[in-house]
């Protein structure tokens, strides 16, 4: 398991981007964490359209209406509950889900990316 963040910190924010503490300095992948319908959702922070981080151009990855995750490069919009793209150049594709677990008020990635 790889530590991502404290659960309390995730509760304070609507979405959090975390880098797994894998010990590998070459690991530049990050994880998008959010709480939706009382469950932690986690996705690899890569847009399926161009394989860039959703926050590549700016830190804000929540759409203006607050309903979707949004890629800052091409403005693709993804449903928070399942990562499915509903608008943009990758419509019909999805963000890649990753498995996380909450243990002792901490959130962990179950497997290395």
Structural write-up:
- The chain is mainly β and 113 residues long.
- The chain has one domain (2-109): 3-layer Sandwich (Rieske Iron-sulfur Protein).
- It has one helix and nine strands; from the N terminus they run E-H-E-E-E-E-E-E-E-E.
- A three-stranded antiparallel β-sheet has the order 1-9-8. Strands 2-3-4 form a three-stranded antiparallel β-sheet. It has a three-stranded antiparallel β-sheet with strand order 5-6-7, with no helix packed on it.
- It starts with a strand and ends with a strand.
- 27% of the residues are buried.
What is this structure's SSE topology?
Elements: E1 2-6, H1 7-12, E2 15-18, E3 31-36, E4 39-44, E5 68-70, E6 77-79, E7 85-87, E8 100-103, E9 106-109
Antiparallel strand pairs: 1-9, 2-3, 3-4, 5-6, 6-7, 8-9
| Annotated CATH architecture | 3-layer Sandwich
What percentage of the residues does DSSP assign to strands (E)?
A: 25-35%
- The CATH class name reads Mainly Beta
Helix count? 1
- CA-based shape: globular
Question: What is the CATH superfamily classification?
Answer: Rieske [2Fe-2S] iron-sulphur domain
Order of helices and strands: EHEEEEEEEE
How many angstroms separate the termini? 11 Å
Instruction: Please count the beta strands (DSSP E, at least 2 residues each).
Output: 9
Widest β-sheet, arrangement of strands = 1-9-8
Helix share, percent? under 10%
Largest sheet: 3 strands, antiparallel
As a whole number of angstroms, the C-alpha radius of gyration is 13 Å
| Parts with pLDDT < 50 across at least 5 consecutive residues | none
Write the CATH fold name: Rieske Iron-sulfur Protein
Q: How many separate domains make up the residues? A: 1
Mean pLDDT: 90
Structural class: mainly beta
């Amino acid at each position: 398991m790889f530590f991502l963040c404290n659960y309390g910190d995730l509760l304070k924010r609507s979405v959090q981007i975390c880098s797994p503490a894998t010990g590998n300095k070459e690991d530049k992948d990050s994880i998008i964490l959010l709480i939706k319908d009382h469950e932690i959702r986690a996705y690899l922070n890569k847009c399926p359209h161009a394989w860039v981080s959703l926050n590549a151009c700016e830190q804000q990855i929540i759409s203006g209406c607050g309903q979707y995750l949004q890629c800052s490069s091409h403005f693709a919009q993804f449903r928070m509950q399942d990562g499915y793209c509903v608008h943009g150049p990758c419509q019909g594709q999805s963000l890649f889900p990753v498995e996380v677990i909450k243990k002792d008020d901490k959130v962990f990635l179950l497997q290395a990316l």
